Amino acid sequence: MVSANLVKDLGLDLEECPNPYEISGRNRDESDPVIHMCTFKFVITKEYIDEVTCDVVPMDCTSILLGVPFFIARKATIIPYLRRCEIKKEG
Length: 91
Description:
This protein is mainly β. Helix content is 14%, strand content 52%.
C-alpha cells in the first residue's frame, strides 16, 4: 500500500484499481474505498532499486507498506528475532 498523501505530494500517476474494495482500520465506524493503484520506483540502498504497484490508501502511519506478496515474489528471508529482512534482487 502507498499513502495517498505521498502519491499527491510526488505527483505520481494513478491507475484505476481493477477490483475496488474497502479497507477499515483507520476509524472504527467507517471504511475507506480503495479505487486507485500507483506504480513507482523506490530505493533502499544504492544497490537495491525496485518498482512496485501498490493500492493507494489514506494512511498516516507510514508512506509505503510492503506486504507478504512483495516479500514472497522477491524470495525474501525474514529473520524475526533479529528484526531483519534480507532481499536479494536479481538483475
